[in-house]
Predict the 3D structure of the following.
Amino acid sequence: MTDVTEIRWHARGGQGTMLAARTLARAAINQGKYAQGMPEFGPERMGAPIRAYNRVSDENFSLYCAVVNPRVVVVLDPTLIGPVDVIDGLTKDGVVIVNTAESPEKMKEKLNIENGKVFTVDATGISIKELGRPMPNTPILGALIKTVPLITLDALLDDIKHTFSEKFSPKVVEANINAIKKGYNEVKGAN
């Protein structure tokens, strides 16, 4: 059986979740891995709860469905905790990364997780400071690859430089790079 790391993202429409999932997949592929980044389609609209998925592996795999038992859960909007069972199906050794200024210990208690690890990063605060608006997707990508090193920081930054420079000004590209680095450096964890 191929070892595939499965990630489920929980967010609200407009937070850049799809871009984050696709960016992670593309950067992993560019680093020689096999990867997927896909949305779960439904009545998506700005502010509505949404999910996206990633799979990353060193070996080829052929799974094309929703992630039901994720090893990693990324929560871009902490107000979803409670109304949505974000840890449903999380593996026993799972990792949860939450965009919040709260401590990892407090979040672990709030999520009612006994096993596994919980990490927090104030991705919204970072994005407001670096990007001038609440777009937590790039800082949370930095936190994700720090806590679950599926790809290198350099691989992610190279992908952002290349793909973002096709659409955005150098100032916006640099702001996103800084946001990723801050997310990478500021993530905190509780075992």
User: Anything to note?
Assistant: The mean pLDDT is 93. Helices lie at 17-30, 104-111, 123-131, 137-147, 153-165, 170-186. The beta strands are 4-12, 34-39, 49-57, 72-75, 95-99, 117-121, 188-190. The longest helix spans residues 170-186.
